[in-house]
């Protein structure tokens, strides 16, 4: 009885174990069947993978183009920097030329204007004659206005002015850099006549002031004026 009882128990255990193994196998099989990749899914995945590879290749091409464009930009920036440097040098040369014109070191030729100042032809009886003569302050007014208006070079009665020129009255004449000059005084200026002349003739400007001081004024447009360089500088 004991042996039969053991066999019954053992048979029951084997039966349960077999059922569990069978159930586990079937369950696993069903799970695998549910997760099986279909041909359609495989094709879609393959398409996506191909598109991703193509996009990566395009990205590499775009990165290469970006590197090339950055290199072009760098070269352009270098060229611009060189041009700016050249422009700086060009501006310096222009400035040097302007300073040489002012100091009278180089010959200057170009269009411009002349301003002739003369003493009054008539002095009323009992009036001070000095109030009807051209003085250095009259010359200064014209010369300063011409320089302010862009004159490149200025001369008085053929005497070219420099940065160290001096003008003062000396009796009936005006002395310019040590040389005496009588009236009339012809002030010549090289520059744009379309700028110089309107600057002189502006209402209430230099010409009007000179006329109020009884000075005879004549302003003329000149197609060409030539001024030779100064032989020496005045200290």
TrEMBL record:
Keywords on record: Coiled coil, RNA-binding
Keyword RNA-binding belongs to the record: yes
Pfam families: DUF881 (PF05949)
Family: Belongs to the UPF0749 family.
Domain of life assignment: Bacteria
GO molecular function, one term: RNA binding
Protein name in UniProt: DUF881 domain-containing protein
Keyword presence, RNA-binding: yes
Coiled coil: 52-87
Organism annotation: Fredinandcohnia quinoae
